[in-house]
Amino acid sequence: MKKRTTYIIIVVVALLLVMLALFSNSDFVNTEQLSTNMEKASFSSKDKKAGGTYVAFKTLPELFAGRPVQVVAKPFATTYAKEAELHGSYNAYIIVANELFATERDVESMLYYASLGNFLFISVNRMDPLLAKKLKFTVVDGENFQQKKSNTAQRYKDSSLNLDTAFSYMGMISGSYFSSIDTATTKVFGMNYKSRPNFIGMAYGDGFVYVSLNPYTFSNYFLLHQNNIAAQEIQMSYLPNDATNVYWDDFYCHQYGPQSGDFSQWQVLMRYPAMRWALWLAVLLLLLYVIFEGKRRQRIIPEKPALANNSLEFVDAVGQLYYQQRNNYNLAHKMIIHLLEYIRSRYYLNTNHLNDQFVEALAKKAAMPETTIRELFSMLHQIQLAGEVSDEQLEHFYQLIQHFYLNTK
Fold first, then answer.
1. Alpha carbon of 196 to those of 96, 205, 232, 303, 343: distances in Å?
2. Ranges under pLDDT 70 in the chain
3. pLDDT tens across 299-317, in order?
4. Residue 172 sits in a domain of what CATH number?
5. Which domain holds residue 398?
6. What is 310-338 written as a DSSP string?
7. Residue 156: inside a domain
8. Cβ distance 100 to 132 under 8 Å?
9. 247 with 380, same domain?
């Protein structure tokens, strides 16, 4: 009992420490949400911090005629295999992440999706090399850094739209750029802070693919600075505002390395801090339950010895009585006692008066001829009145009783 109380005290103290740690971290979380540090930008649609894309995701429906934006949390190939609507045309699919880690199957699905007359928009700091090879362009990975004063972060230029504008803010600057492109099918629509191309668009089959090397233009900090929301409008203007379906990818922004093995639903659960805490807390509570409930709460119940089978002892006693003492009357008397007890317990009849009424009642309940019952009890009366029983009488009486036992209902 003392040990159990000690365990409970330890667990309660541990839980209190965990709760204090969580509450003490609340100020840290609020400070982190107000911070403008973007060195670890998540580009997640649910992240409201500086490096998240919560603002971009929430304002996206306004740029597509109010159409709802569908969030995708699985690899492109998996989504493409299950979503029949992606096999149509005039759909828009948007990927914003720090780095694109795509499998060969993902790349094949993306390009086939675009060739059907759809629009694929990718904005990443580092491009997948296989996809870059398929689209015939080369990327030079530049250095990303957080600037200390407001300088030009992104410039857009498109002569066909009479567009030439630049945007600035005090946030992360992307240094990656395209060193070579297929000029026959690809156009440059944007440049980085060094005036090097970092936003291109190209025709692929019946559709289009757009690639930007500055995902920070979708970050909360960038879009909320002055009128930078126009940068998102410019980029999305290359996609049809009346697209059949609009998809926002929320999978690749959580990938920090090449995909290994089959995609698991646990990857979606474990990528969110709140969900991870909930799962680990559930595991902890389950462990505590096993520790405390696994112990016995009562004394061990002693084993109850099995009931002995005394029937063989009874048979042996009867045999000795009959063969050794040769007391037929005593044996017949015991047979009568057992017979009457059998009738009382099975047919609930009073055996004090073995008269005609008793014989008639027993014959009906036992479903036997009345003559058979009368013969049995006539023999029973003779044995009770006589002081001695011969071997022949005992054998005959035994046969009548056995006939009664075997044929009654």
1. 20, 27, 19, 87, 111
2. 1-34, 260-273, 293-300, 307-326, 409
3. 667 777 776 656 556 656 6
4. 3.40.50
5. 311-407
6. -HHHHHHHHHHHHHTS--HHHHHHHHHHH
7. yes
8. no
9. no
